[in-house]
């Protein structure tokens, strides 16, 4: 009896093992989820519409006059005596008009308020620095808060 050689079978098994190794490596390196992880800047909603993260257009996805609630929002920067910015990053953030202290930068707050349309002259109407003015103008709206409290612990 002669031994049958099966080189194609060896290549197929080797290729299959390589694919398995690559899949396992991808799952381990990405955490096993293809879903985008939520930003850690908190939640900001108008009705049932999430305002953070911002819409792909960069505009605030809410209608002026809508009630807004925010939970565990990270205070990014403070504009003394005017308000503060909340969100996950310098790009993904929303201006909140509030004339009382909200807490130091980096703290988390809950808020209640409403959506306001961006005024024609944001710098003059809101008293913001130029780069903040540009951001509110691009978003076409901002939030005015009636209540801001330290975030409740989960």
Largest sheet: 5 strands, mixed, barrel
* First-to-last CA distance: 74 Å
| Strands in their spatial order, largest beta sheet | 3-4-5-7-6
What is the helix content?
25-40%
Classify the fold: give the CATH topology.
Answer: OB fold (Dihydrolipoamide Acetyltransferase, E2P)
Structural class: alpha+beta
Q: What amount of the residues lies in strands?
A: 25-35%
Give an account of the 3D structure:
With 154 residues, this protein is α+β, with helices and mostly antiparallel strands. It is 25% helix and 32% strand. It has one domain: OB fold (Dihydrolipoamide Acetyltransferase, E2P) (Beta Barrel). It has a 5-stranded mixed beta barrel.
């Amino acid at each position: 009896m002669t031994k049958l050689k099966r080189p194609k079978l060896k290549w197929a098994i080797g290729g299959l093992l390589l694919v398995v190794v690559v899949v396992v490596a991808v799952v381990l390196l990405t955490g096993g989820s293809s879903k985008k992880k939520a930003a850690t800047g908190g939640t900001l909603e108008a009705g049932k519409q999430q305002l953070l993260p911002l819409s792909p257009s960069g505009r605030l996805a809410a209608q002026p006059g809508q009630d807004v609630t925010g939970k565990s929002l990270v205070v990014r920067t403070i504009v003394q005596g005017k308000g503060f910015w909340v969100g996950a990053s310098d790009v993904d953030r929303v201006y909140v008009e509030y004339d009382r202290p909200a807490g130091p930068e980096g703290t988390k707050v809950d808020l209640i308020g409403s959506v306001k349309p961006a005024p024609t002259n944001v710098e003059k109407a809101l008293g913001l620095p130029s780069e903040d003015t540009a951001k509110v103008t691009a978003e076409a709206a901002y939030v005015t808060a009636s209540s801001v409290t330290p975030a409740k612990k989960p």
